[in-house]
Each structure stands twice: as C-alpha cells, then as structure tokens.
C-alpha cells in the first residue's frame, strides 16, 4: 500500500491554508497526499514553460513561485506570485492543453505535484475533491475579473498600493522595529511588469511613498511601514 507523502508541520499548514481544501475529509486529503509527489526547485529553476505538455497541477508547500508570459517581441509580463498554500497549473491539468504561461521558482521552493493520471483518479474517486477543483477555478476566475476591472477603472497608485498590500500579506514578515518586510527581491522592472507600467513610474511612486513614510526600501526589498495608509490608497 502506498503511504502519503511525508510532510513537515509547516508543509501541512501550507496545504490547510486553503480553507476549502481544509474542509475536505481526512480521507480525501490523505488520498491527495498518497498521489502527490514532492518536487524541489532551486531559486530561478523553471517549473514549466509556455507550450509544455501539462504534467499535472502543483501545490506550493515552501518558497515562492512566479507565473509570467512573454510576447513575441520578448516583453515579459509578470502575472502573479504564489506563496505556500497556492495551487497552480490547474487549467492545463484539467483541459489537457499546453501550458499558457511560464512558472519559475523565485526562491528555493518545494511543490507537491499531482500528475494528470493521479488527478483523474482523485476526481473519479472523490466527488468532494472535484467540487473543490471547481471552486478553485471559480476563485481564480473571480480574481482575474477583479484584476481586469481594476486595470480599467483604478489609477496606477491605487493598483500598486493594492498589489503591495497583497504581497505583504502573502510574503511579509514582521520587523522588530515595526513594519512588514516583503521577503521577495522585487526589482522596479519586475514591479512594472506586474502592474503593466514603466519602471520610471514605479520609481516615482516608491520615492513618493518613502518620503511620506509609507514604505522603506532596503537592499532590493520593500518594507511596508504604514499598512493603514496603503489600504486607504487602494480604496480611494
């Protein structure tokens, strides 16, 4: 009999960070672990590339990944960063079509892979798991639509404040003297790609916020000092 993947307490917490997955029965969750295969990635290592044949879906257990796309002219668009507890790659895993984007480890990472064959087994065996996948796709589609609306109706400063707060929530660690240190090295170019703007505009906003005491830039990282004010900017 196959045993479940042996996970640390932190990795179990990452899996249970998704409330819908946590709500599944022990039997279903245990079966997911039985069919899951752990895969380690070095910082900068590619998980999959655009055009690749789908090899399943992944759950981030440790580290951070980013998903991006590149135009024919070589222009890169960073779509999102994913922290422990996030599920990625479900679209191609479910529709069987080639990968639409690139996924790369930002830091040393650990993912749990569920291959297409194992995914089919889990779906056939556990209707609640199938409903979980539907909810997962619905949540991601909702976030995509909200993002489209924000891009069309909000200012760059609003969108940047909102995205920075999301990154702080996902990757922030409290500083002894106060503030949240975003544990990702985010270049101004990367932030520009994430927000669909220029590096110059990102530089202007970062300088403005630093002067106003909202953030601090330290060795390529951003420390959020005034979360309340950033939240207000995002809601204006």
UniProtKB/TrEMBL annotation:
One of its GO terms (cellular component) is cytosol. Residues 20-123 form the Cyclic nucleotide-binding domain. It comes from the Bacteria. Residues 154-228 form the HTH crp-type domain. Keywords: DNA-binding, Transcription, Transcription regulation. InterPro entries: cNMP-bd_dom, cNMP-bd_dom_sf, Env_Response_Regulators, HTH_CRP, RmlC-like_jellyroll, WH-like_DNA-bd_sf, WH_DNA-bd_sf. One of its GO terms (molecular function) is DNA binding. Pfam families: cNMP_binding (PF00027), HTH_Crp_2 (PF13545). The keyword Transferase does not apply. This is CRP-like cAMP-activated global transcriptional regulator. It comes from Zestomonas carbonaria. The gene is glxR_3.
């Amino acid at each position: 009999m196959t045993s479940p993947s042996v996970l640390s307490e932190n990795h179990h917490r990452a899996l249970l960070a998704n409330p819908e997955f946590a709500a599944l029965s022990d039997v279903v969750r245990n079966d997911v672990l039985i069919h899951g295969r752990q895969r380690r990635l070095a910082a900068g290592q590619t998980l999959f590339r655009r055009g690749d044949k789908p090899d399943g879906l992944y759950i981030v257990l440790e580290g951070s990944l980013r998903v991006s796309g590149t135009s024919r002219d070589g222009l890169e668009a960073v779509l999102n960063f994913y922290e422990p507890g996030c599920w990625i790659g479900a679209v191609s895993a479910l529709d069987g079509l080639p990968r639409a984007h690139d996924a790369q480890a930002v830091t040393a990472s650990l993912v749990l892979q569920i291959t297409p064959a194992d995914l089919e087994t889990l779906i056939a065996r556990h209707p609640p798991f199938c409903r979980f996948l539907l909810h997962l796709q619905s949540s991601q589609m909702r976030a995509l639509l909200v993002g489209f609306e924000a891009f069309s109706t909000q200012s760059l400063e609003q969108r940047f404040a909102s995205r920075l707060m999301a990154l702080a929530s996902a990757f922030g660690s409290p500083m002894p003297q106060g503030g949240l240190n975003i544990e990702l090295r985010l270049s101004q170019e990367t932030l520009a790609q994430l927000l669909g703007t220029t590096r110059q505009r990102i530089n202007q906003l970062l300088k403005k916020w630093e002067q106003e005491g909202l953030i601090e830039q330290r060795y390529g990282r951003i420390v959020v000092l005034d979360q309340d004010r950033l939240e207000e900017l995002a809601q204006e």
